[in-house]
Sequence to fold (457 residues):
Amino acid sequence: MSKGAIRCAQRAVAGVALAALCAASADAITITYVNAGPLDSRVYVGFANDASGNLTSDFVANGSAASRNDTVYGPLPPIGDLPNFDAKAYASAELGTNLNAPLGTGVRSVFAPLTPSFLQAHGETLMASGSYSSHAYSFSGDTTATLPTRWIVHVDPSGAETAGTPADVTITGSLTGAVTVAGAATAAATWDVSTTGFGTVMSGAASQATPGSTPLSDSGSLTFTLPLGSTFDLLVSYDLTTAGGGAGANSTSEIGASLVQISAALSPPAMFAPISGFKLLMQDKYAAHGKAKMVLVAKDATAGSIDKGAAADPPGLVGSVELYQLSNPANRARYALAAPGWSANTAAAAKFKNSGAAAGAAGVLKALIKPDRSLTVVAKNLGDGDAASGDQNADDLDVTALTTSDVVMAVITIDNAADSSTHRLCARFESPTIKPIAGGTGVQYLSKTSTLPASCP
Fold:
């Protein structure tokens, strides 16, 4: 059971019906691709004739090498089945079989080697006269096109997932091979795996113009966020050339191993945890003394309710605190718990301190989170930047607008880089005591009554 599911179960045992409040972790995505070419579109590898239009066999001493002219490989066969095969037997229906399945957090291969040295351009030993060049290429799309055609990849919801939910998409690529020259010949290889909107996975070139061999190797990764139901394009293109002239000329460009894969995962949703508030104190002394105060305390021993994620050094925490009037959410205090203020993040506690907290500045002086025990926040104003009574901006709360029948919601959000988790803790304060202070020029709000909220807007 996931941690979020455990929280829901525990809180239900406590007698509070909150099953709908903890979202199940998102883990199902369907990835498909559509080839933009005609029905005979395929990943295509071929070998061109020389510039005169003659077959390779016209110049190659070993006539059996002419069969390379007709070598055509297609897209990957269904998952788990990677034999050698004739691409001409594959029609458009097969193009999506690899990716048209729920992905979860796994990967889908787009292009991979089907045979050893699967992509080659050879310049065989030539006859005493004549010249030769060959070209190998790989692309998705119309096999008669001169340029590659991009795949259109769909990242769609699967099961209970919702269209529009952002997913982290990762494309990885790798290849190895060599360009080899013997005699009066040349060899070259170029490769490109890229998207139009998000960048390049890997791209490069290698060449050899003197006797010898140059290995080629490349790998790369590209990650971007894409809403479910959206698409991106993907180009996989490898180009190899060899040329030679005269007896003894020989060259080989070869990509012997290649793999391009797509993976995607839904970011875990922010975990809403209803927590029991212990005290909320707000004092407005701006008119008499130019200062204010806020103290928020929550105490909740329910496992998983008060949480901040994994321990780490450096802390890797950032967060915020919001207090708002339920009947008028625009009346709210917002406080930032910026990364520099976190001094510790252990299994026992996370500590925040800002010695510069003051009216008119960042407000939180200190904060302390003890998982499964308590949470305390102390601030020197009624919202970041607040320095006077009244609702001056979106970050300050006007205590004078509250009545004893008002409910104040407290929302504490903690993002933890150590485990990429987000924790959203919500408390509800009601039935306060409200009284004048500072010679009647200010007001104090104090609530020690709290019930678990049914939602956390």
About this structure: The first strand starts at residue 29 and ends at 35.
